[in-house]
Write a structure and sequence with these properties.
The protein is α+β, with helices and mostly antiparallel strands. Helices cover 26% and strands 24% of the residues. The protein is built from six helices and 15 strands. It has a six-stranded mixed β-sheet with strand order 2-10-11-9-7-8, covered by helices on one side. Strands 3-4-14 form a three-stranded antiparallel β-sheet, covered by helices on one side. A two-stranded antiparallel sheet has the order 1-5.
């Protein structure tokens, strides 16, 4: 079974604005190494590439009443997909996603009739936890749902029945503030995902062991970025977008919305 990690997530860094003297909050992601097996030395664990049989088993376990169906096999014409991207890709960063992901696109199948079930952990015993953080995560999912993609979300109280898990840790060992992993099948349909968000962030190069606490505004920005990864988006160099590696935006941009909408009109898989 081969393994793949889509992207890492964003980290919060305090950046001193040149000439201004004020602090500008930024979110930063480290490069995402490609891994092909369990036990990789990569700092971020990979997401699992599921076989179709494994996907069927997972679907049966997650949907015992048959609420969600497996997507049918999709015939794709790579040249046709490339032509469509060339024709309607202006104003998006879909080309950057293709470049970053080995010329392949990943996304969820239609989940409007059977919304993705999202479980958000409430770790009351974790130092620094604020219930408002969970509220901000829900708001991030709601903002993405308003984009008009064929993917809806519902929140469930039971982690065992969830398609998506959002969990919290005190801080990461590396200078990041969150992490998104998704699992895909052999057609590049995303079939499951996990998001981890830190309550504190250790600045790059800080040898003191101190980690700065994140506030609700930062958590919301991290969640918006991570749900973007969850949906299949990758990084862009334009810092006005929520999906830039160093996130300064606090809302979805027109390019974020346009890219996600275009992605969900294209078949998953290779565009080569």
């Amino acid at each position: 079974m081969s393994l793949r990690k889509p992207r890492t997530i964003a980290a919060l860094a305090a950046l001193l604005a040149l000439g201004g003297g004020g602090l500008v909050a930024g979110l930063e992601s480290e490069p995402a190494p490609r891994v092909e097996r369990v036990g990789s030395a990569a700092s971020v664990a990979p997401a699992t590439r599921l076989t179709r049989n494994a996907r069927r088993a997972a679907a049966r376990a997650a949907h015992p009443n048959g609420v969600a169906e497996l997507p049918a096999f999709v015939e794709r014409d790579a040249a046709e997909v490339r032509e469509r991207i060339a024709q309607v890709g202006a104003g998006t960063y879909i080309g950057e996603i293709v470049d970053e992901r080995d010329s392949s696109l990943a996304r969820w199948p239609d989940r409007t009739a059977a919304p993705l079930r999202v479980w958000v952990q409430h770790p009351a015993a974790l130092d620094g936890w604020d219930p408002e953080f969970a509220v901000e995560v829900r708001r991030a999912f709601a903002q993405w749902q308003q984009v008009g993609l064929p993917v809806h979300f519902s929140f469930v109280p039971d982690s065992a029945s969830a398609d998506v898990h959002v969990v919290w840790i005190d801080h990461f060992a590396e200078p990041i503030s969150g992490r998104t992993l998704w699992a895909r099948d052999d057609q590049w349909w995303i079939v499951g995902a996990d998001i981890t968000v830190a309550l504190r962030h250790a600045a790059p190069g800080d040898s003191t062991g101190r980690a700065a606490a994140l506030d609700a505004d930062a958590v919301r920005a991290i969640a918006l970025h991570e749900v973007g990864h969850l949906l299949g988006l990758d990084h862009t160099t334009d810092v006005t977008n929520i999906m830039t590696p160093r996130v300064r935006a606090r809302a979805l941009s027109a390019a974020d919305v346009a890219t996600a909408r275009l992605l969900y009109t294209l078949p998953p898989g290779s565009v080569r």
